[in-house]
Structures are given as structure tokens and as C-alpha cells.
Request: fold
Amino acid sequence: YLDVTKRTEGNFEKAAHLAQQLKNAIRSSTRLSSTVGVSSNKLVSKIASDFKKPDGLTVVEPDKIESFLGPLPIRAISGIGKKTEEKFSEMGLETIAQLRSVDVFTLNSHFGRKIGTYIYNAARGIDDDPVSPRHDPIQYSRIITLKQDSKDFDFLANDLEKLCDDLNETIVKDNILFKSVGIQFVQSDLSNRTKSKTLKNSTSNIEELKKTAMELLKESLQDQKLPIRRLGVKISDLSEVAGQADITKFF
Reply:
């Protein structure tokens, strides 16, 4: 979600133009189509984004919200699953407009106060949930349960290499550098043991990741008493690859 209220001064025409710029930037940088929904809150924006897939742009201004939602099936509301939809169907309710005929007390009696109130408000396009900034992760990790408990280097190294390869896919996808590498053992008694190393320079090199992880594994096994049940690898002290930009910087 992006809150562009200040940037567009609450003007939906400007917001639509900005959304089109975003779609163009995504297509230019990834060659992929995208669907964008623009409205006054997250709930309606999400429903609007599902409206014209796979390459649509739907703008729902505040005074059009109820008429936009009305003919849609109840399942269009985020969080309405198959069982809930079936329950409404048993009540003779199929569309969001029909759902509005049910008072909040009836909804609360069927689904509980929290969910009932949410459904009541959602049917009217009411959503006060703010757009919160996304915090960058402080580390990335991968962990697996071994086929058998072990403290044999060759056995563990084989799985550790696979974990590094898996982690590298995220490193490449998210365009990140790391400066710290760590490994984790969950031992046969379920206790944890970790060991890490800080590199001289930040890197995104898979070979550096594997080399450091293997060194940590070898060092840790020198005094390893218990067999290892789960094995993990992590990277931290993260930074962004120079020249990469967040999608919000395209416009």
C-alpha cells in the first residue's frame, strides 16, 4: 500500500495519474503488468486492485464507494473466506449490497463482535486501518530439519550449501549486501547454538557466503558434543546495492 494523500493533495485525478506512472515504472523495470486500485482507504483500494486484472487501474472516489461495492460478491471483501461466504449464502445473501441489510448486532451474534463489526463496516467501505511504513528486515535466514541427527561435517556441509543457495535467491531478488554471516544449530536436546563472523566488506557474493558459512561450520564442530537436529544460516548487517531504488522513487 502507498499513501499518496499529501503528494496528490487528496486529488483523485492526480492519484490516478501517479498510479499510471507506477504501472509504467513496473512495466519498464520488470516487463510485468500490474493492477492498481486507488481509493480513500486500504480496504476499497485492495478490492479495486482485484477488479481489472491483469493490467487494470481502477479509481473509486469516496462518493462512489457504496455503488462500486454494492453489486460485488461478498467474498470480494478481504478476509471473507469460503465458509463465511457459505454462511451468508444460507442467509440468502450473495452481494455486498444485500449484506448491508444485516444489522451489526446480527453480524456480531454470528461472527463475534470484532469480526462482525469489521464485516458491517467493510460492506459500507469503511476502513480506518492506516498505511504503515514497511520496515526493512534486520536479517535473512534459512533453516532446515536434518534427515537424521548428526555432527558429521560432510553430511552437514551438503545441506548448508543448499541453504546458502536458497538464501542467495533472496539476496539477488532484494538487491542486498550483507556484512555478517552466521550459522545456527538446534541440538538433539533442542538447545540452540550459534556462531557468526563479520566480514571486512559488505558483499552479495554467493561464494563468500558459502566460504564463510563452511568455515563457521568447521570451527563449531571442533567442540560440538551433541548431534545436530536442525541447521540454519543467516546474514545480517544488511545494506542496499548501490544504484537500486525503491519502487516509490520511480516517480
Notes: The two ends are 16 Å apart (CA to CA). Residues 153-174 form the longest helix (22 residues). Residues 243-251 have pLDDT under 50 and may be disordered. The CA atoms of residues 41 and 232 lie 40 Å apart.
